[in-house]
Amino acid sequence: MVAELLLAVAGVIDGCIKLANKVITTYQSYRGADELINERLVLVQALWTKLEIQLNFLKKISSQLDEELAQSHLDLLEILNGKLLQAVARLNVSTSSPSDDSTLKQKTSEVWRKWRFSLAKKGLDELVTELEAWRSRFDPTWYLIILMSSNTLDTALKETDTKATESTSVCSSPSPLDSMLALRQAISSPKTSFSGESQPKTSLNLDAAGLRGATETPIPFSSARSIVRAGSSSLFIAESVNAPPGTISQVKVDVENLARRLQQVDPQTFGLLRCYGLLKHQDPATKGLKYIEVVYRAPQDANPPMTLRQLLLRHHPVSASAIMRTAKQLVYSISYIHTCDFVHKNIRPDNILGSLPFLK
């Protein structure tokens, strides 16, 4: 059963890549004919370049997947295959020819050209939307691969990432394998990778002097606060971690381990803030570590952060679609935390941050 699943995964990946390349090659025949088509084609190519890297890597290590993970990927791949088949069908309509009657061709050539371009634009718009939606569902499952303890996986990841970096350098975009490799290293021993190679230890400690003159604003209903440093427009979020008496040493280790994993998180995929570093505060009397503050980067275009509780109090009623979207994002966030070998607890409206469009 598992062997059949693995063969099916590899087969569907091959089919998806062939279909996607056929669609993109056909649409490239429109390049230069219309500026809007050019823009949409660039978006499709950028999306597919990253997806193809992920799919090729998945195929390369598919023999290492367990049954549950293989079935999960197969289900998603079949959805992608269906979307690409629909794209091919749309292309067949837009590239079909009018009647062979030469007089009719002459009369309708301009109308036909405009109609074809209109269909091409619509088809590209739909393809962009479908690829983005599919990738948002695929990425959380794809990241579960990092939990596999396999030297084969490490070797394949490094080899594929080198080739992928060359492919994505054309569009100045990072390889999707970069974050996977960094996270895989982060969730391993701080000093060694999964493959046993020694690694440099990344410093997490921040200098409190960097916050002198910063504007700090409490976030209502939350223990966190927003920070804007003097002379900068970058927004940060800071939250204190207090340890019960006698546990500060263990809390320090746990916070540092989680911070390393959160330094590698993809905020758009998992709905988690990326960790910027740690501020460690000493007890003036004992000079020992008293508590730790975790500092996160906020999205550059973010509105002032608000807790979900504050947002809920402002919006009456909240739409069902917003509730489902929030629940879905929480599942992605929790899956990442579990992938990092941590458990989740105390998830409340008070510690979920968003901005004004969050519940629309």
From TrEMBL:
One term of GO molecular function: ATP binding
Protein kinase domain mapped to chain residues: 221-360
Sequence intervals crossing the membrane: none
Gene3D superfamilies: Transferase(Phosphotransferase) domain 1 (1.10.510.10)
Name of this protein: Protein kinase domain-containing protein
